[in-house]
């Protein structure tokens, strides 16, 4: 099988578009070529890079989730870095006036609530208003694009962790996502996409032949990216999602959980692709920092069979059933992550949620088909 090349790996094919222009770039350490050279360094070497724009976690990846980022100067390249994750999430008109073309190169994880998507969405709107073209250097989806999961986001839950009616696991590359929102929501951006080479929708991360570079501090492994689809919902609860440990989103726990009982109850569901192990951990930061937590770790034994959204729903259900101390500590955030209030309110039980999610996600897959760049 031919190795996959991301958009940055074919950047020389776009010299006609890039040469002679003042370039602004949205990127971070996940933006690298096959040889692990930073995209911003490649663009600065071969073209006229005049501005950098920092998403969540910063241009060099040195900020934690949610941490505000300030404007700065990149020491290595000596160009200004403008924050897109703090008090300002949009590109100011004056900043756009100083560039001729904006380049986007970030590794997404295939989850609706990953903020890089909406940094791109805002940038497309800003570019459209000011007539600045935007080039997306497309990247593989580490979850693959063949499977979609989860309910659609409702309008009342729109936020910077979800703006459009798409499933939790939406089955598109970031370039396809940009094509979809540009057309379906009338953004009107002059959009260019540098597609991946040799990529197919059903390819897993391991099949791509590419190195894993953590797209953000708490997605350290391909397993954490896949399980994130189902366990990110715990951000809205008093249960630790594993932040502050070496296995964020892979292990879930709290001081009040009976780990062995939870493991036994989950095993009864016989969910495909995952084995649950009772575990105990002490986070170094985040929820319960310095406290002993009890829970489970999800061990993926078949990534193609695993449906992480389904697994996450049953995990949440069993913790709620078992633990009287369980609480929704950030209910609005939980609703935004899930897409509506049906899970938190109990308005739908888990089988009903999963049945609706299957209908809605499959419908989305078909509706997004006109914007695909890659075949099955």
TrEMBL record:
Signal peptide: none annotated. InterPro entries: NamZ, NamZ_C, NamZ_N. Residues 24-222 form the Peptidoglycan beta-N-acetylmuramidase NamZ N-terminal domain. GO terms for molecular function: peptidoglycan beta-N-acetylmuramidase activity. Residues 226-374 form the Peptidoglycan beta-N-acetylmuramidase NamZ C-terminal domain. This is Uncharacterized protein YbbC (DUF1343 family). It comes from Oligosphaera ethanolica.
């Amino acid at each position: 099988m031919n190795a996959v090349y991301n958009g940055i790996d074919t950047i020389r094919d776009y010299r006609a578009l890039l040469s002679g222009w003042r370039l602004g770039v949205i990127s971070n350490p996940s933006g690298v070529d096959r040889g692990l050279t930073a995209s911003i360094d490649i663009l600065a070497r071969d073209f006229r890079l005049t501005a950098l724009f920092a998403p969540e976690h910063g241009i060099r990846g040195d900020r934690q989730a949610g941490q505000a980022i300030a404007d700065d100067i990149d020491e290595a390249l000596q160009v200004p870095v403008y924050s897109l994750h703090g008090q300002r999430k949009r590109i100011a008109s004056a900043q756009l006036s100083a560039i001729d073309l904006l380049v986007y190169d970030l590794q997404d994880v295939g989850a609706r609530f990953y903020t890089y998507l909406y940094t791109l969405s805002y940038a497309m709107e800003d570019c459209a208003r000011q007539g600045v073209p935007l080039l997306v250097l497309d990247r593989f989806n580490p979850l693959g694009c063949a499977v979609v999961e989860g309910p659609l986001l409702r309008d009342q839950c729109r936020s910077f962790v979800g703006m459009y009616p798409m499933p939790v696991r939406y089955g598109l590359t970031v370039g396809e996502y940009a094509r979809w929102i540009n057309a379906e929501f009338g953004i009107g951006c002059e959009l260019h996409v540098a597609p991946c080479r040799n990529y197919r929708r059903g390819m897993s991360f391991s099949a791509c032949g590419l190195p894993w570079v953590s797209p953000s501090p708490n997605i350290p492994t391909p397993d954490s990216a896949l399980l994130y689809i189902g366990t990110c919902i715990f951000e809205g609860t008093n249960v630790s999602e594993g932040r502050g440990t070496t296995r964020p989103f892979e292990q879930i726990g709290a001081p009040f959980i009976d780990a062995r009982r939870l493991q036994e109850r989950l095993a009864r569901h016989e969910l495909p692709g995952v084995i649950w192990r009772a575990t105990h951990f002490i986070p170094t930061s985040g929820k319960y920092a310095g406290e002993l937590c009890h829970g489970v770790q999800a061990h993926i034994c078949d990534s193609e069979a695993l449906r992480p959204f389904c697994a996450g729903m049953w995990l949440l259900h069993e913790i709620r059933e078992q633990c009287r101390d369980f609480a929704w500590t950030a209910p609005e955030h939980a609703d935004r992550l899930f897409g509506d209030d049906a899970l938190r309110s109990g308005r739908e039980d888990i089988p009903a949620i999963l049945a609706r999610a299957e209908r809605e996600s499959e419908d989305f897959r078909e509706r997004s088909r006109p914007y695909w760049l890659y075949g099955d």
